[in-house]
# Entry
Amino acid sequence: MGTPSKITSYFRRLKARMRKSGSATSSAPSSGLAKLAPGPSPQPPPGTACLPPAEPKPATLPSLQEKIWNQAYNDAASEEPKLVKRFKEIIFSELHPKGPSVESTDRVEDTEITDQNITSSQMLELLTNPITEALSNREGIQYVLGRTEWYWNLVSLLLDENKADEATVSLRDTMEKNITQLFQRLLVYQMRSACLYHRNAGATLVRDTFKIDNWPEQLGSIKEAEETVRRDMEQYNNQKIQKKFQTLNDTTFALHESLQSIFAVANDQAEYLRNIHEAVQDQTNQHGKNNEDEKNKQCLSDLYVTDPQDDKEIIEAKKGGLLKGSYQWVLEHKDFQRFRNEKDTRILWIKGDPGKGKTMLLCGMIDALALDQSTPLSYFFCQATGGDKLNSATSVLRGLIYYLARRNLQLVKYVREKHDYMGTKLFDSNAAWHQIRKIASAMLKDPSLENAILIVDALDECSVGRQDLLDFITETSSAKWIVSSRGWQDIEQHLGDTQQKVKIHLEMNQDSVSQAVEHYIQNKVDGMERKKRFGGEAKQAILEHLKKNSGGTFLWASLVCEELSKPHVQKRHILKQLQKFPAGLNPLYRRMLEDINQSEDKELYNDILARALVVYRPITLKELRVLIVDLGALEDEEIKEVINSCGSLLATHNDVVSFVHQSAKDYLLSEALGEIVPFGIEDQHQRILENASTHLQDIVRDARRFLLFNSRVIEIAPLQVYDSALIFSPTNSLIKKIFSHEEPDWIKTKPRVEATWDACLQTLEGHGGGVKSVVFSDDGQRLASGSEDNTVKIWDATSGACLQTLEGHDHYVFSVVFSKDGQRLASGCWDLTVKIWDATSGACLQTLEGHDDRVMSVVFSTDGQRLASGSRDKTIKIWDATSGACLQTLEGHYDDVTSVVFSSDGQRLASGSDDEKVKIWDATSGACLQTLEGHGNPVMSVVFSHDGQRLASGSWDKTIKIWDATSGACLQTLEGHYDDVTSVVFSIDGQRLVSGSKDNTVKIWDVTSGSDDETVKIWDVTSGAYLQTLEGHDDWVTSVAFSMDGQRLASGSDDKTVKIWDATSGACLQTLEGHDGDVTSVVFSIDGERLVSGSKDHTIKIWDATSGACLQTLEDHDAGVSSVAFSIDGQRLASGSDDKTVKIRDATSGACLHTLEGHDHAVRSYIYSLSDDEVWIMENGQRVLWLPPSYRPWDLAIADSRLALGTSSGRVAIMAFRSGD
# Structure
């Protein structure tokens, strides 16, 4: 059935369901057509029968009705394609809420709408779900649904071909066209209604408001089409049709009565929908409010430059707390009272010299004024050492506005008027001051800020835009101001002539200030007495000296008390020390400098003072450590001790270093600059630049190492950069230190890693098999690798990105080499071929065939014209690298040729072989020039020195031999490796030789003396002295297991031993020897008293886990034992073996109780939680921690929340996870 028929079926079934549920909406026609209706039909109207919950597929529609309906649908689709497409989407979304798309269903005819159960509630949801709907549309849809039912049934009565005579055929055809047009209009009206009700409420409201759909006009169009049909029917009318019309009319009237009941239900639902509408409206309003709150928060966040309340708390803490007795006098001062009581007195200026306590006076005023809730209050503390955040006019106004707006969010609107469209540019542009000034002026006129008081401390420290700020203060008439400053001329000029100003000159109120200072001194000495515990006589002497010499200056008293309170000043020396402090701030600062100059750390103290003196803003301890090399190795607390020794000129708060007071910095700049900065400020800036640049370079280098080391995990799982990448990076990695707070807290005991980055820059992953050969291009920009996955990969040697994957070989690629110019790459393979590739495009240029066995080594001549290959067929072939022709076949070895190399001049060729010999050949003639004998095992690597005078060879006999390349004499035999030597290479100058070995080391040899002058730990992916490292095994660790209590750890190794470790300290408790083959599996008994080990020597040993004594040796497997395990109750022991059996034993006697056979392969045990590719640690089946290649274990054991990794390097590593995570 086509799509139109599906829609037809949908509407018919939809109406049937609505009738069944009492929700039918058809109505009898009100036109004269009813009079023409025939009598009742013997069949029930379509859709009136009760439908079962899962009705069968309905019968096919009458062909005539289907034809007309389909034509009406097609006409609608042609005239209004977008409407029909949208309607189809709605229909299918209703019938297939989680099913296929419209397009896919159209393509599958068996998937039909008629197979779905359509309920009345679904129709109500389709046509009455919207919260608001136009009344005219509701009335229209009722009319249209009734008419659709009417004319559907009318079609079979009027247009049945079997009931028409020849005289009426032409008229019937005309009427069919008119009925089709009527159906089309009915269908379009319903489609538009459905689309309307599936728009959002806002869109519906807009369309209804502007009458975009014009429902009355559409309904009128339907009625016009009805009128046309009616006229046609009147001409076509006969008695038989009239009787049928009458039947239909009766049915329609019955439906009309049912519809009245439905209307009652619909009205109830409409009320319900209105309630929903109100709820949604409330939710919309709340959403709007939340949105406004977010905008307000963002505006405040952008406005923020500092929180004055936080600054006040910091200042009070640095100055030892706010004492009421130190500021109470100013609250009682007549000028302060005048300022508070006289409306026209707008400005109160607190004027005084440095150290007189202006800032603390204002802190006291703020606390007192804050008690009056009717007085809006805001304040700002200027600080010359705080950078442009604390010393500019713009920042002052931003701070004042921020504090006001944060306390009264209604005021944010004055900022948002511009912020909503300017964003942060409002505060960052060159016109920021003018914008902020306008905002402040408008805000201060707000009725809620009537009688507001704005307080600005230390106007003299506002070094950027102070004149603008003073103009604003004097011109603003809508608020009162309290300001403090030194008596500087420019401030005096602005504030001195203001008629609405009062001034409290601290020097003119010396008695009050002195009393406040004495109160402060009393408090400080009381605290000192509690700490030093000196007697009453000493206390009195201290008080008298401080009061006499303070000169009414808070700062002087504070600095002296600070010096006397230091731990190194013993109480018996306090009075003597007190006499060293002269009266007055400047003499006191001079005295402090003299003490510094007499110190053993004079240079360090001067460096610290110099850096603090020339920087733009206060610096943190971390920054100071960077700017002064001598502090680099010190901890933060040690640096604080050093700063405290700088004569109390500097102070630290929240790890920020600053001058104890602006006057201290002013004194050094004016009176002691030559002492502190002997070579000038520019010299200090240069030193800062150099130290900072060095540190930045270190960060960049470390970041590069970090990215290279973790590039793979960053690529596949970026968020692991906060887990695996940080955890496994070295302790001293700068990136690790900077982001240490991001390390996961679910790892309770984090891995113990190496202190610094090792020699491994990056591990390149991507091959699907073992890598057999790697080589750099001559320019060092690329790296090629050949693998057991039959491919060659070309990598970017800087980034580690894979540039090319060369496919074409059918077996292991055992050797790769670049040509000198880097344009070509050769690969030798076990498929008996050599391939030459274009190293840029990856295209295969040549396939060289001729060897009868695996190709083991390939090498280009220096000029790139020839290529040599060595093979297991015991020959060397020299090829023309351009044509691919074989130029020479060199025969003479009696076993596999493992290595070939050209001399730098291309005249000679050397080869190493499993026959333990090295041969030197004439590369042109193919003649064997020398056969070098002396190795006792296969020769795996040969190389010429750069000058061609010497030849080095490495062998499985663990030695390197250096030969005279002309005479063939053995010049040196280098011994020191403990396993096979696999690779040798000369340095460019020929003075050193590097060798690689299976003993996991790279050795650098001085070939002039033959000594091993340096051993570098190899960065092989199987090694890693990381985590908590348990060292002691001499070969791969194959199995690890915790005791049940987690206190001990057992490890088995290919070195044929079992070790028992203390899992907390890492100490080796026992080394159990006795196996004659690799130990493959270890396990503790449940009670921890015994330990069982399985070995490739076919035996199982049961050990006393405390004494280490071997209690039993079980020897009944016919092959290596691969796994052992205890039962839960500890009564039985199971062992799996490569003999394809599992044996179950009595755990006490060792007797075999059962032998289970039937395995097709050797039995293995997987007791650890690793991903299948052994790259991830899994938790509950989820990947949680990526393991770098050097940490991937040979075996893993888990006990409770602890995990042990056994690696192929012979080390055991332990980590612990937080329980329950």
User: Anything to note?
Assistant: DSSP finds 33 helices and 50 strands in the chain. Residues 695-749 form one domain.
